[in-house]
């Protein structure tokens, strides 16, 4: 779910790339755009969505509330209305903890291999 370091050089991501990052359908992303106005990818003349890092961070926030915490769209909207900054911080912390866990598991695997 996190942006890979090699992809951080990219400025825009297509809707299919963002959908793949989160394991959701493109239609879900389009629906979330309607329900959460702060998800607002740039659209080209041909109406092709181009997601920036900020857009992806906003999608990550909605994904966390809806898919990981199990809130309804209305519940997620209400939560964000009340405490968007707090939820964004929580999502950042959770993402970092997941990365640390992956690093630790990788180190453990290497240590197990050495013994």
CATH architecture tag: Orthogonal Bundle
Strand order of the largest sheet: 1-2
Number of domains: 1
**How confident overall, as mean pLDDT?**
88
Tally the beta strands: 2
Please trace the helix and strand order, writing H or E for each element: HHEEHH
Protein name: MerR family transcriptional regulator
Domain HTH merR-type: 12-82
InterPro entries: DNA-bd_dom_put_sf, MerR-type_HTH_dom, MerR_fam
Keywords: Coiled coil, DNA-binding
Topology record:
Layout: H1 15-22, H2 26-35, E1 42-43, E2 49-50, H3 53-68, H4 73-114
Antiparallel strand pairs: 1-2
Helix pairs in contact: 3-4
Keywords:
Multidrug-efflux Transporter Regulator, Chain: A, Domain 2, 66% helix, two-stranded antiparallel ribbon, 115 residues, 2 strands, 4 helices, mainly alpha
What does this structure look like?
With 115 residues, the protein is mainly alpha-helical. It has a single domain, classed as Multidrug-efflux Transporter Regulator, Chain: A, Domain 2 (Orthogonal Bundle). 66% of the residues lie in helices and 3% in strands. It has four helices and two strands, in the order ααββαα. It has a two-stranded antiparallel ribbon. The chain is globular and about 55 Å long. It starts with 14 loop residues before the first helix and ends with a helix. The relative contact order is 0.12. It comes from Candidatus Phocaeicola faecigallinarum. Residues 83-110 form a coiled coil. Keywords: Coiled coil, DNA-binding.
Summarize the structure.
The chain contains 4 helices and 2 strands; from the N terminus they run ααββαα. It is mainly alpha-helical and 115 residues long.
């Amino acid at each position: 779910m996190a942006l890979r370091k090699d992809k951080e050089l990219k400025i825009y991501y297509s809707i299919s790339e963002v959908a793949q990052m989160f394991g959701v359908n493109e239609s879900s992303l389009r629906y979330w755009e309607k329900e959460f106005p702060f998800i607002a990818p740039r659209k080209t003349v041909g109406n092709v969505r181009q997601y920036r890092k900020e857009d992806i961070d906003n999608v990550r926030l909605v994904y966390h509330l809806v898919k990981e915490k199990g809130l309804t769209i209305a519940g997620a909207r209400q939560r964000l209305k009340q405490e968007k900054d707090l939820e964004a911080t929580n999502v950042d912390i959770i993402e970092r903890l997941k990365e640390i866990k992956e690093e630790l598991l990788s180190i453990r695997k290497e240590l197990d291999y050495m013994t």
